[in-house]
Amino acid sequence: MRMVPSLALLGCLGLTAVTGALASDSFPSRTLTLLIGFNPGGSTDVQAQVLAEIMAEELDQPVDILHFPGRGGGNAAAMLAGSQDGGYVFQYGLSNPFVFTPLTTATSYDLDSYRFVAGITLDQAAFVTGPDTPFSTWEDMLEFGREQGELIYATQNPHDQYVIESIMQGEGVSLRMLPTTGGAGMAPLIINGEAHIAFSGGTHSAYTDSGEMRILASPTRERLMAYPDVPTLGELGYDMDMHAYRVIAVPADTPEEHVSRLSAAAKRATEDQRFIEVTEERIRMPVTFVDEAKLTRLFAEQLEQFSKIGEVSQER
User: Fold this and answer.
1) Using omega within 30 degrees of 0 as the cis cutoff, is the peptide bond preceding 28 cis?
2) Which pTM was predicted?
3) Alpha-carbon distance 211 to 214, whole Å?
4) Cys-Cys crosslink for 199: which of 27, 37, 79, 160, Cβ 3.0 to 4.6 Å?
């Protein structure tokens, strides 16, 4: 695994002239690029470092990592949709930028712009606070927000922003948004007290043991694997969730044989002790393998559900 700078992007994605030849080559026959929609240092990046190493071994080709942050992975998703590289460039990260973001933000892509090679981790998102805020429960946080007149919230993507705004609007609590480009940007805001609460896709796992972050609630359907005492939004009375997988995605026109090869390498990664260790012990998320067919069905269901959210968002 090697790191590549953003300036290499055109070289990675602009190979239109050789697209036809790629399908006939034995895949892969050259270096691949793993695209991450966040800055280095967050939980997706920590996991992707190991994933790239294992996939390089399985595919017998180097796998470079390219970070392209913005819009909670949406900038990278837009870039991937325009790739004509036949699967040599693939994205790893949350499914939400593919399913949810196009419904609430003007994008150059939609769900049909991709094939989803595999889901390999069940995301374990959380709403967190720092070590010195004068509250430790969701209820106390709401009361604090009402007393102070507002809460400062560090957001990472359109989905978490919509969820928290909907909740706080119903609770009568004002929010001041601090946009971030991922967990690495969120962490100092919470730890230093610049934000009262924040969305964390998994970065919190590196800070909870030390007490630098405390978890208030989870937007997942079930309680978090590593934090079984933390209530879900559903348990707190809110009819919404952020159920998401961490997926490998490629452009929709990627050749079938390329998708199959990447899927097999992803499956092997979920069985590799290095990936299991970094996922389940370090960032504390369940390793899973979900194939393309199941992901396609799940995302179609979510698209229908999220479309209603998108309609509400457009009206606001």
Assistant:
1) yes
2) 0.82
3) 6
4) 160
- Identity at 241, one-letter amino acid code: D
Phi and psi based region of residue 259 (left: phi greater than 0; alpha: psi -120 to 50; beta: remaining): alpha
Q: According to the model, what pLDDT value does residue 243 have?
A: 86
**Helix/strand/coil for 12:** helix
Yes or no: say if 220 and 94 are a contact pair by the CB < 8 Å rule.
Answer: no
Angle at 77 between CA 71 and CA 80, to 5 degrees: 150
Closest alpha carbon to 227 in 216, 237, 239 = 216
Res. 292 pLDDT band, cuts 50 70 90: very high
**Average confidence (pLDDT) over 176-183:** 94
Dump pLDDT digits (tens) for 212-261.
999 999 999 999 999 999 999 999 999 888 889 999 999 999 999 999 99
Largest CA distance in the chain: 65
Q: Assign 301 to helix, strand or coil.
A: helix
CA distances from 289 to 14, 121, 159 (A): 31, 7, 24
Domains in the chain with CATH codes: 2-123+244-315 (3.40.190.150), 126-217 (3.40.190.10)
